[in-house]
Amino acid sequence: MTPRPPITIPSNLLPSDGRFGSGPSKIQQSFVTDLASTGTDLLGTSHRRKTVQSIVGGIRDQISNLYRLPDGYEVVLGVGGATAFWDAATFGLIDRQSAHFVCGEFSEKFATVTAGAPHLGEPVIVKAPYGSAPLPVAVSGVDVAAFIHNETSTGVMAPFGRHSEALVLVDGTSAAGAIPFDVTAVDAYYFSPQKALGSEGGLWLAIVSAAAIERIKTIAGSDRWIPPFLSLETALDNSRRDQTYNTPSLTTLYLLDRQLSSVLDQGGMEWAASRTMESSGLLYNWADSSTYASAFVEDPSLRSPTVVTLDFADDITADTIASVLKDNGIVDTESYRKLGRNQLRIATFPNIDPDDIAALIACIEFVVERLAG
Q1: Structural domain tally of the chain?
Q2: Are 282 and 252 contained in the same domain?
Q3: Which of the ends of the chain has fewer CB neighbours closer than 10 A, N or C?
Q4: Predicted TM-score of the model (pTM)
Q5: CATH assignment of the domain containing 317
Q6: Is residue 165 over pLDDT 50?
């Protein structure tokens, strides 16, 4: 096969910043510069010291402000990312049995974790085809109903809500800080900060209700063995002292604190939601009018405003488009690796400028024209 000649995208078409990854995501460069300017005042400091505790306390306060948390709700932090929270919830929030509403790789992974737990009953799985989402129907007998707010693998924004007497757990990893929701409909809204919240990974945060806190303490006081690293009671107790049980990444904390401050200064959740809707709307409108691209999520009400997945016609290879874009400094537009579709996946988090999304569309059109020729 004759090698494809290189395609150079004209500089006047290129976005000002070519980072469109769905996680880890674009970080504000000014925050990285400011982090370097802290010198010896932050990095290398114990997370038990006031310097770091003030940052953790600021993060907790700013999340409370961002979501306007009602009385009884608290912000809890732990090390390990949302994946670790699945394990922690399996030990410390699910009493007997859970129901899982699955619509992609990440919502399914939590179900897999609980299915392997010897102290729990077999989970109930309510599953929809990828690209769609299950309705939050009632499931009798379960004490936890687990949902996902935004399925990062497929670009689905899934519905969730109160579920009889069960605690409602929602994975908000690629929605937190960008997609508003009714906090009172949820008992634990957990997420990692390396997506819409423009930080690094290795940390989980959870907004928990009074009912969730009561469940955590009840299970912790039972005879169930819980690994200390995964103890939600320990995470709660440490968070109330503005620290984590074990050493966190201070870089992650610093960047998260700065991102939250920036979002609140610009208008809070209303600003973030409007910005992501503008960016994602550009892509969806373009795909809906395109002759060779289409939105993978067919139902407009389920289309994510923060992660856009676009299918391409069979005669156009999306991986080739992504490769050419990468050669021109536009990175991380490839589809989710396990989905196996002829697709691009493009993040439209608040840190991404809508003008750069418009430029990306122009670049995709330029590349497709050259590949077709």
Answers
A1: 2
A2: no
A3: N
A4: 0.95
A5: 3.90.1150.10
A6: yes
